[in-house]
Amino acid sequence: MKKTLSAALVLILLVGLLSASAAPAGSSLDPLATLRYLSDTFYNSLMSAFHTKYDNTLGARYENAQEDLDAAYRTHLARLGALDGYTPLSSPTSYTLYGGQTAQLLTGSTFVPLSGLAMLTVSQGEVINVSTGEIVQSGTYLTNGLRYLCAEDTVAVVSAGSTLEILFEGFCKTTAMKTVLPLPFLDMTKADWFYPAVEYAVGRELFKGTGERTFSPGSSMTRAMFVTVLYRLAGQPYVSTASMAFTDVADPSSYYYNAVAWASQNGIVTGYVDGSFRPDASITREQMAAIMYRYADFAGYSVQIGSTEKFDAFPDSVSVADWATSALMWATDRGIINGADGMLLPTHTATRAQVAQIIMNFGNTARI
To answer: How do residues 157-208 score in pLDDT, each as one tens digit?
Structure first.
């Protein structure tokens, strides 16, 4: 009897063990919490729940805090006169300053002279030589290879005594050109009449290519593209996008949204009578002249017309729309627009190459 009972107990134990081993190893059905279950299932589930909670709460709060901090910083800089003609540089960017050229920098900006002769003038605040920890006095010649920082409430100017290669990061205001790199575009050569203009526009990051290796010089310039060029020319100032004047500019993620909002709020573009902007429409030469004329006035350049002689000499000047006549008189008088094949062609579309040339003309003559 005892042997029979012992055999029955052994049998029951074996069945129990077999049942336990039948559960998938490492699963929640396993009566023992195995290492495999902890590492492959429990941990992954826990991390997934954590990331979901982070993305929905902490991550969102962090992004909101970052946006608030950026807005506060921009407001602070605006009080110093920033964002009016300044270019925001989020990473060290190489510039070439020729003798007599200057660059103005603001709080938080850094600079590293690489070669040439540079003198520092501090209008207010302090500039710190980060490499040595010393405060740099106004009127000091900078040492090449050392890093300098504009401290709180600082406005400083770097002047080139000779051809100067220098890295800027932060907020920079200068007429100098970013160090020119060979254009990567395969659809143009140095022999093309527009090559210097494209080099000018791309070197200042006013234009970008239509691809890594294409510029598409003969393609039409759209209204959105042109306004974006002027926005970059203005230094991409901060603009409130809480409201948009145009019914067909509705996507805040579009590359031209901020540019159109800025241009509209400053009276540089007015759109059409139906409330639209028509961003994808090709811009006409008279539209371009009118927008540039308003931009020049906004930026504080002279829009006086010295003479209408050049304008009147074009045989098709009589076909210019009334709303664009003053703008084209100003543009031709200044040498910003010089016509094509002896004609103004006011209602013709402008190519990307032509716009690059006009932008370079504007940069060279608008301040005269």
So the answer is: 999 998 899 999 999 999 888 887 788 899 999 999 999 999 888 888 888 8
> What's the pLDDT tens digit per position in 291-334?
999 999 998 888 999 999 999 999 999 999 999 999 999 999 99
Residue 310 and residue 228: Cα distance in Å, rounded? Answer: 29
Angle between the N-to-C axes of helices 223-233 and 352-365, in degrees from 0 to 180, rounded to the nearest 10: 30
Give yes or no for a contact between 316 and 160, defined as CB atoms under 8 angstroms apart. Answer: no
**Domain ranges for the chain:** 24-79, 87-178, 195-365
CB 323 within 8 A of CB 356: no
Is the CATH code 2.30.110 the one for domain 87-178?
A: no
- Cα separation, 151 vs 128, in Å, equals 7
- Answer yes or no: pTM beyond 0.70: no
Whether the Cβ atoms of residue 30 and residue 24 lie closer than 8 Å to each other: yes
Spatial separation of the C-alpha atoms in residues 246 and 263, rounded to whole Å: 11
